[in-house]
Specification:
single chain; alpha+beta; seven-stranded mixed β-sheet; 16 strands; about 25% strand; disordered N terminus
C-alpha cells in the first residue's frame, strides 16, 4: 500500500519470484510485523479489495487461475516457524509444499444480501496464521457484480505485493508501460543530498501528539469507502500555480483537512499531526518481488489555511524530503539490524507504536494499468485495507485504478462513527481543491 515505481503488465513468472528465506530467520521488518500479532497485541491482517462489473467466475475456474498465475511465487508457500516460538525468540519462515487452492481460494462468507463492508470488516479482524501459509482470496457478492478480497498476514505480504498478485491474476487489454519520469521524481533525486545519518536522527524526533482518537484498539473493525473520479483528482492536482502536485500530496492534504473538520486534531499546537507514509523501496528489477520491501516516512499534516495552502505545504514537504531516497536509507538501516531482541530495540518499538511518533497511517497505491479484466468482468475499483497498529485505531488509504480512486477508512469498532464521516470528508476535501 505504497507509492511505488510503475510496473509493466504482469504475466505468470517463468521462475519462482520473491524472497526465499526457507527455514531462516525472518528479515527484521517481517519479524516486527509478525510479533505484533504473535504477542497478542493486535491483528495484523492486511488486504486489497477489488470490485468487478460483470458476472463472477465459477469458484473452480478461479482456483485454477490462481494455481496457474500464482503457483510460481515461493513467498505464497511460507509459514511461520512454530519451532522458533517463544516470548524472546526471533521468528522464522519455513517453506512448505505448493499451496492447495481449495484451502486458500474460498467463497464468502456472506450471502447475496450481506453488506460487503460488514463482510470485509469481519475478515479484516480475523488473524491469519496456523499451519497454512497466511493468505486467503475470497470471492464475495457485491452490488452490480462481485468482489475479490485478497488478505494476508502483513509479515508475509505488503501492500505492493497484494497489488502485484492482483495484477498477475487479471488480464490487461493492453500492456501498461512506464511513462516518462515525472518532474517530481527527477526533482526528488536532485534535492536529496542529506546524509543518511542525519535522516536516521531526524526520523527519531517526535512529530506527533496524542489525539482524541488515540488509545487501545479493540478486536472489531469498521470499513468505509468513498469513490472519486480521476478527473476530479487530476483537477485537484492542478490547483497549485507552482506546478502539478502528486496524487499522494492531494490525498495527504485532503486527509489533513478532513481531520480538522472532524474535530479530532486536538488543541495543542506542538509537536503536531503527522502521517506515517509507507514508501516502496523496490528497484525496477524487483517490481514483481513479494514480501515487505518498504519503509515509512513521516509527513507533517498542515491544519491551518485553506485547502490549497494545505496542498502546497504537503507538496513542498514531500518533494524536499525526497521520500524514495529517505525511505531507502531507512530500509537499509532496518535490514542491517541483528536478528535478536534487546532492550533498546524494545524501547524504540514502543516509541514507534506511540502517537508521539506518528498520528495515523496514510497509504496510497495504484495498479498503474489501464483496463483489467477477469473473464468478461471489468475491474471497476480497488481499495487498500491496512491493519491497525497498536494505539492507533484509525488508518486511511487511497488506491487508484484506471479512472477511479477509492478512499478507504479503517477503524476499530469503538470509532465506527468516524469511519463514514472521514471517508466522506476526504472526498469533499479533494473536490474543494479543484480550480
Amino acid at each position: 500500500m505504497t507509492p511505488h515505481t510503475p510496473v509493466p503488465a504482469l504475466a505468470p513468472p517463468a521462475a519462482p519470484v520473491g524472497d526465499r528465506p526457507a527455514g531462516a530467520a525472518m528479515p527484521p521488518l517481517d519479524a516486527w510485523l509478525y510479533r505484533h500479532q504473535s504477542s497478542g497485541t493486535i491483528c495484523m491482517t492486511d488486504g486489497v479489495m477489488a470490485w468487478f462489473d460483470g458476472a463472477p467466475p465459477p469458484l473452480a475456474a478461479l482456483r485454477e487461475r490462481v494455481a496457474d498465475r500464482w503457483g510460481a511465487y515461493d513467498r505464497l508457500r511460507l509459514t511461520p516457524d512454530v519451532a522458533a516460538a517463544g516470548p524472546r525468540a526471533w521468528p522464522g519462515w519455513v517453506e512448505g509444499p505448493p499451496f492447495v487452492t481449495e484451502a486458500h481460494v474460498v467463497r464468502g462468507p456472506g450471502g447475496a444480501g450481506a453488506p460487503v463492508e460488514a463482510v470485509v470488516a469481519q475478515l479484516l479482524a480475523q488473524p491469519l496464521g496456523g499451519s497454512r501459509p497466511p493468505w486467503r482470496l475470497h470471492l464475495l457478492s457485491a452490488p452490480g457484480g462481485f468482489a475479490l478480497l485478497l488478505r494476508a498476514h502483513h509479515a508475509l505480504l505488503d501492500g505492493v505485493s497484494l497489488v502485484t498478485l492482483l495484477r498477475a491474476l487479471l488480464d490487461s487489454a493492453a500492456p501498461a508501460l512506464p511513462g516518462p519520469r515525472s518532474r517530481r521524481e527527477s526533482t526528488a533525486r536532485a534535492d536529496s543530498p542529506a546524509p543518511r545519518a542525519a535522516w536516521a536522527l531526524a526520523d527519531m524526533v517526535p512529530r506527533g501528539r496524542p489525539l482524541p482518537f488515540h488509545g487501545a484498539v479493540d478486536s472489531r473493525r469498521t470499513v468505509a469507502w468513498s469513490r472519486l473520479s480521476m478527473a476530479d483528482v487530476g483537477a485537484a492536482r492542478d490547483a497549485l500555480p507552482s506546478g502539478r502536485a502528486s496524487v499522494n500530496a492531494v490525498f495527504l492534504a485532503a486527509t489533513a483537512g478532513a481531520l480538522r473538520t472532524a474535530g479530532v486534531t486536538g488543541r495543542l499546537p506542538l509537536p503536531g499531526v503527522c502521517a506515517m507514509v509507507p514508501v516502496d523501496v523496490r528497484t525496477a528489477e524487483e517490481a514483481a518481488v513479494l514480501g515487505n520491501r518498504y519503509a515509512t516516512v513521516r509527513v507533517p499534516l498542515p491544519l491551518g489555511g485553506d485547502a490549497r495552502r494545505r496542498l502546497a505545504a504537503v507538496d513542498g514537504f514531500t518533494r524536499r524530503a525526497a521520500l524514495k531516497e529517505r525511505a531507502r536509507a531507512q530500509a537499509r538501516l532496518v535490514a542491517s539490524r541483528p536478528r535478536r531482541h534487546g532492550l533498546l530495540g524494545d524501547v524504540l518499538g514502543r516509541y514507534a507504536d506511540s502517537p508521539f511518533y506518528s498520528s495515523l497511517l496514510c497509504s496510497s497505491g495504484a495498479t498503474h494499468a489501464g483496463p483489467l479484466v477477469l473473464g468478461d468482468a471489468r475491474l471497476a475499483g480497488l481499495a487498500g485495507l491496512p491493519p491497525l497498529s497498536p494505539g492507533h485505531p484509525l488508518a486511511v488509504t487511497m488506491f487508484v485504478h484506471d479512472a477511479t480512486a477509492v478512499v478507504t477508512v479503517v477503524t476499530d469498532h469503538g470509532h465506527h462513527r468516524l469511519a463514514d464521516r472521514l471517508a466522506a470528508l476526504i472526498g469533499a476535501e479533494v473536490l474543494a481543491l479543484r480550480p
